[in-house]
């Protein structure tokens, strides 16, 4: 059995992508910490919450949140196509690794992080890659997020490359 055997209308009504079996609600787990990092410059006391953040597996996220169709979300995830699931899990792991890097640096103090918005932008890019796996649109894909992650961070070079 796989996700295609589930009721597509029921999945869509629950905000679960009927094609992938994944829900964007899981992105909240990552978006919250990215927002905290983004706010660090003006609110350095947020560092404690960032340091307390821990990865949460997809099924655990849904059992701990108020998502109304949590059982369906977990079932659809379990039935997700193995290739999609691997891309999804890999994309999530990339975000978890980046957050872990921030946490290690933050242990030395907020100032050790430098400009927190640089880190949050990287995280938002990686989170968008997860979203691209959940809701493929031809642009959002884990590979896109990886390219951005591995780039030197020179935004102008990336823009120039678009016009070459």
Helices and strands, with pairings:
Blueprint: H1 8-13, H2 27-39, H3 47-52, H4 58-64, H5 70-78, H6 82-106, H7 116-134, H8 142-150, H9 155-163
Helix pairs in contact: 2-7, 4-5, 6-7, 7-8
What does this structure look like?
With 164 residues, this protein is an all-alpha fold. It has one domain. It is built from 9 helices and no strands. α4 packs antiparallel against α5. The protein starts with 7 loop residues before the first helix and ends with a helix.
Concise summary:
Helix content is 63%, strand content 0%.
Distinct helical segment count = 9
Beta-strand share of residues: under 5%
Q: What summary fits the major beta sheet?
A: none
Query: What's the SSE pattern?
Result: HHHHHHHHH
- The global form is elongated
Number of strands: 0
**Which residue ranges are poorly predicted, with pLDDT under 50 across at least 5 consecutive positions?**
138-164
SS content category: mainly alpha
Helical percentage: 55-70%
* Radius of gyration using CA atoms only: 17 Å
Assembly state (oligomeric): single chain
> What's the domain count?
1
Distance between the termini: 46 Å
**Overall pLDDT, averaged?**
85
Features:
164 residues, 9 helices
């Amino acid at each position: 059995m796989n996700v295609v055997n589930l009721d597509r209308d029921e999945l869509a009504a629950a905000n679960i992508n009927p094609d992938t079996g994944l829900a964007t609600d899981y992105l909240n787990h990552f978006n919250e910490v990215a927002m905290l990092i983004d706010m660090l410059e003006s609110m350095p006391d947020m560092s404690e919450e960032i340091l307390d953040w821990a990865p949460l597996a997809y099924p655990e996220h849904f059992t701990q949140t108020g998502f109304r169709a949590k059982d369906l979300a977990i079932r659809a995830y379990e039935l997700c196509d193995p290739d999609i699931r691997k891309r999804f899990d890999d994309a999530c792991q990339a975000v978890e690794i980046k957050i872990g890097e921030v946490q290690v640096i933050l242990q030395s103090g907020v100032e050790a992080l430098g400009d927190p918005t640089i880190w949050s932008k990287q995280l938002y890019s990686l989170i968008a890659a997860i979203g691209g796996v959940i809701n493929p649109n031809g642009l959002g894909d884990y590979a896109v997020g990886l390219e951005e992650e591995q780039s030197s961070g020179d935004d102008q070079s990336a823009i120039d490359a678009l016009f070459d």
